[in-house]
Amino acid sequence: MRLVRLFLFVVTPGPATAADIEIVCVDGSKLRAKLLNKNVEVKTKYGTLTIPAAEVQQITFVMRLTPTEAKRIDDLVIGMGSTDFEPREKATNELREMRERAYPALLKASKHADAEIARRAKESVSWLEMRVPGNALQQPTVDSVHVEGSVIRGTLSATSLRVKTAMFGEQTLRLSDVRQLDAVAKPK
Prior knowledge:
The chain is of the alpha+beta class. The protein has helices at residues 67-79, 85-97, 103-109, 115-131, 134-137; strands at 19-25, 30-35, 39-44, 47-52, 56-60, 143-147, 150-156, 160-165, 169-174, 178-183.
């Protein structure tokens, strides 16, 4: 009788290599980094899809406000209806300074039941449309993740991205600070 030895080798993949990316921030600045997240999770109307980060060619992010920003904008919209002139002016000017971050709230407020809030919101919408480039005001309503041959639209599950830059090392970027992410093609 022969004895046969069977050797089983388990090959485990090494750590995934981080994807080289360029990040466009909401203020227009750009940052080169390596994306450390292994996957990007997108909630779609058909369910949640997990995409390997290395497959992502581009992500266009919906504008996100931090809870503090959202509350501040809500308070300022209400402030436009103050019975005193000075607080109304201050609220209006602050909302205009927030530019595209306040634009959706101003559009909504332009239909407000309070006539003063609605009037000031309409004026502010017109003011912004004349001073802010149209593409900055026309924000997407869902996140778009581009992979080879497909675009997946939905809402990213994460609230931040883990990245590593040559200058700052490992960092966590809030999605509220990011407008777009592009994969950087590696030279051949």
